[in-house]
Amino acid sequence: MTKSWRKTALADRHRALGSNLEDWNGMGTAWTYSGDMSEQHVAVRTNAGLFDVSGLKKVHVVGPDSTDVLNHVCTRELTKIYPGKSAYASILNDSGLFTDDCLMFRLGPNNWLMVHGSGTGQEELARSAANKDVAILFDDNLHDLSLQGPKAVDFLADHVPGIRNLPYFHHMLTTLFGRPVMISRTGYSGERGYEIFARGQDVVHVWDEIVEKGKKMGIMPCCFTVLDLLRVESYLLFYPYDNIAEGADSIWEMGLGFTVSPGKTNFRGAEKHYALKGKERFRIFGVLADADRATEAGDALFADGRQVGVITCGMRSTLTRKSMALARLEPRYCVQGAKLEVRGKNLGCSAIAHTIPFDDPKKTKRTAIG
Predict the structure, then answer these.
(1) Which terminus of the chain has a smaller tally of CB atoms within 10 A, N or C?
(2) 84: left (phi over 0), alpha (psi -120 to 50) or beta
(3) Contact, 70 vs 107, CB < 8 A?
(4) By residue range, what is the domain housing residue 64?
(5) Is 221 in the same domain as 237?
(6) If residue 342 lies in a helix (H) or strand (E), which one and from where to where?
(7) Does a structural domain hold residue 243?
(8) What is the mean pLDDT of residues 288-300?
(9) Could you read off the pLDDT of 192-247 as tens digits, one per residue?
(10) Per the structure, how many domains does the chain have?
C-alpha cells in the first residue's frame, strides 16, 4: 500500500475483497479487487454496484459569507441553489483554466458542503475565504459510498421512505440501517444512483448491510477502476486523467461549458475564461475502435497522415462488445464518423470519431422520476 495521509474506515473490507489499497488523493483506495471487473461493470449497468469514493475531499463551508465565497470559487450561480439541492461546477485559476470540479451541496442558509477531487479546489477556496466571515472545516470522518445502477432506488426504497421522490441533484438527511446519513441523488456512472454520506463510526455498518442485503438483487461491491469503464461510456471526466497538464485546459475544450451559469461573471478567472471561447486547441470527443480489446491512455490517433489526437481513457464493454474511448481530438475531426487510426504500443487499428455519451445519450436513466 502506498503511504497515504488520509485513512478510510473501510480498509479491512477492501482488503478482504483483494485490494492492496493504492493511493488516490491521499487516501488508500480500492483500485482493484480480486474479482472480475467486467462482472462488476455489468452489475452496475444491470443491477447496482457499491463503490467507496471516500477519497473525494469533503469541506464544510459555514458562515454569513459562505455563499459569496463559494460563488467566487466556482462557475455556478449558487444564490439559486436552495437547501436540499446541489450543483456540479468547475473551478478555474486566475488564467481562466480548469483546475478542479466539484459538487456544492447547500445544507442550510449559511451552510455548504463542497466535495471535490484531486485538483486545487481547497486551495482556491482558501484564497477566496481570506478576510471573510466564514469557517472552513476539512472533514475526513465523513465517508462517501456510491450505490449506482437501475436497482439502487428499489433497494433503498425498502429502507428510506420517500427516496423515490428525491429529484436528480437533490439530497436528504435521513437514517439508513439505524445510522444518520445524507443521501444525494448523484453519482459517477451514468445510471440512476445515490451517494450515501456517513460518519466513519457508521460507514462500516452501512457498507456491510448494503452488501449483505443487496446480494439477492445482484448488488455487489465494485472497485475504483470500474469507474473508468462507466465514465467512458457516459462521458464523465476524471481530473487530471483527461488533462495533459494541471491548469492547462479551458472548459470549452473539456466540454464543460454547461457548468457556467448563464451571465455569471463573478467567479475567479471569469474574464479570461470567456475570452478563450472559440480558441479551442482540441475537444474531448468519443472514439469507437475496430478492435476486440480496449485502447489505452496515451494511444495516438492519426488522420490524414499525421497525429490529430490522443486517447485519455479506453474500455471494451462485455455488454455491447464495443471498444470505446474518450480522447483529446482536434476540433475539425470531432464529427460523427470521421475516420481515424489508433497507433498504440499494444494496439493498432482503424477507428471513427463518435459523439458522446455512448450510453444513454439523452441521460434519461440518471434523471428518471419515480
Answers:
(1) C
(2) left
(3) no
(4) 58-136
(5) no
(6) strand 339-343
(7) yes
(8) 97
(9) 999 999 999 999 999 999 999 999 999 999 999 999 999 999 999 999 889 876 77
(10) 3
